[in-house]
Recover the amino acids of this structure.
């Protein structure tokens, strides 16, 4: 690549990698159908972590710039097609058109197609309402946020389980785990969860990444600002600091507090300019913040591939 990745310039590394890949495509060095370097090859060439390259590739794939083919690699998409299919709704409309055409060829009318489509959608929604999912993670902030906010379908019940609680009280959680249709954890804890549960249940591993908006806001914090992190656990704080290091933002001096006492929390907040908060603690911090404070909620969310994998797994559960 003609330009290096610049560290410590406030721009997350994966965004720089993404822009570098786009530049190679725009200047014609990588053309439609060309196979890109593997994540390992590009990470070694640019001297960044493989996770950084993976995050850049995933975003470009979600935007229709790249396409991953299982077992073959990552390729440059046809840009004309990417322009025509501007978003997921356009792509879905094309899929519906194909299904409708095939229905007509089978002898169904458009009215019958609409009726059967509505019937099938209602059936799927009813099935999803019965799905029971357990999400197992090592920090309470992430597991509670996931259970409350993430939607895989209408009415799906997600039970949060903290890994430490599971280790200490396996007998207590066993009925819940046995009744669950699907157990989810992160790649980081997959082997441990599998070992704890043995052959009781299949476990699905997903990847959780920080929201890009969160990383960008932190990258734009002016030098000299006093920055703090308010969360509930050392584990969550470690994950935040690791995520910032991966994005090339590890040079920041961030003070960490797990304080729950109101007076001590007020004192901690008063000595900061920017407060990074875990999900669930924003309101506590806002109660003591002033107009000069900038509050940034640090949220981890499943990547696009994990979301699609989960949705497919949930549908497959109810086919059995």
């Amino acid at each position: 690549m003609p330009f290096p990745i610049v560290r410590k310039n406030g721009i997350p590394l994966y965004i720089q990698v993404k822009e570098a890949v786009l530049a190679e495509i725009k200047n014609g060095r990588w053309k439609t159908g060309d196979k890109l370097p593997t994540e390992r090859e590009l990470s070694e060439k640019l001297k960044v972590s493989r996770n950084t390259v993976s995050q850049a590739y995933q975003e470009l794939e979600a935007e229709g710039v790249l396409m991953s083919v299982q077992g073959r690699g990552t390729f440059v998409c046809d840009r004309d097609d990417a322009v025509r299919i501007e978003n997921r709704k356009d792509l879905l409309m094309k899929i519906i058109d194909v299904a409708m055409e095939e229905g007509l060829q089978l002898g169904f009318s458009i009215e019958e197609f609409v009726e059967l489509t509505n019937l099938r959608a209602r059936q799927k929604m009813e099935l999803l309402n019965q799905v029971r999912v357990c999400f197992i993670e090592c920090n309470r902030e992430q597991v509670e946020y996931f259970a409350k906010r993430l939607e895989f379908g209408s009415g799906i019940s997600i039970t949060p389980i903290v890994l430490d609680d599971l280790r200490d009280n396996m007998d207590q959680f066993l009925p819940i785990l046995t009744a669950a249709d699907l157990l989810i954890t992160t790649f980081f804890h997959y082997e441990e969860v599998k070992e704890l549960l043995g052959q009781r249940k299949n476990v699905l591993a997903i990847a959780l990444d920080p929201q890009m908006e969160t990383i960008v806001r932190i990258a734009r914090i002016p030098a000299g600002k006093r920055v703090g992190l308010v969360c509930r656990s050392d584990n969550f704080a470690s994950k935040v600091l690791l995520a910032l290091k991966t994005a090339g933002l590890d040079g920041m001096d961030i003070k960490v507090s797990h304080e729950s006492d109101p007076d001590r929390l007020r004192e901690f907040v008063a000595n900061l300019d920017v407060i990074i908060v875990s999900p669930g603690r924003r309101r506590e911090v806002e109660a003591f913040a002033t107009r000069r404070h900038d509050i940034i909620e640090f949220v981890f969310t499943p990547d696009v591939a994990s979301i699609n994998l989960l949705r497919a797994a949930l549908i497959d559960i109810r086919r059995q």
